[in-house]
Design brief:
- This protein is an alpha/beta fold.
- It has a 5-stranded mixed sheet.
- A hairpin with a 5-residue loop joins strand 1 and strand 2.
- The longest helix has 20 residues.
- It is globular.
């Protein structure tokens, strides 16, 4: 079972992806996905604006990359690290990919709380996903806060 240092290390890799997203003018969310042996299979960040694709959230980006690399749309035993609590769309994609675990950074205080509602979603989803939140929450939340602060400030 991975420990907190393990989770922090991989969340830092996801955070580096969020920083790239920030520099590109995307909402700064980053993700990495690990295989069963703990190897990083794919890294990615939000690309909704760049790709003009409303589904190009960091989670979906890395799921697509990992599926292509592995040659399979199912990724059982894999772990996803993402800097922001996944939205409902991403939870659906995560469930379809059959991931074992999702570790996220900061809670989504503005959107629907999938962490709390995920347990209710488990009643409706075919595959149950273990979720842990709050890893490097302060750093992951700070970059989002800064991004939206700058967006509001620059649009006034």
């Amino acid at each position: 079972m991975p420990d907190l240092l393990f989770d922090k290390y991989f969340m830092q890799l996801a955070f580096k992806q969020a920083e790239l997203s920030y520099l590109l003018g995307e909402v700064p969310v980053g993700a990495v996905i690990l295989d069963k042996q703990g190897n990083v299979i794919a890294k990615g960040h939000n690309r909704t604006i760049i790709d003009q694709d409303p589904t190009a959230h960091a989670e979906v980006v890395v799921l697509r990359k990992a599926a292509l690399i592995m040659g399979n749309h199912r990724l059982p035993g894999f772990i996803l690290y993402v800097t922001l609590e996944p939205c409902l769309m991403c939870i659906g994609a995560i469930s379809q990919a059959r991931l074992d675990r999702v570790i996220f950074g900061t809670f989504d205080s503005k959107g629907q709380s999938t962490f709390n509602s995920q347990f209710n979603l488990n009643k409706y989803l075919n595959h149950k996903v273990s979720m842990i939140g709050g890893i490097l929450s302060e750093d992951c939340g700070k970059i989002l806060h800064q991004f939206f602060h700058n967006l509001r400030y620059n649009n006034q």
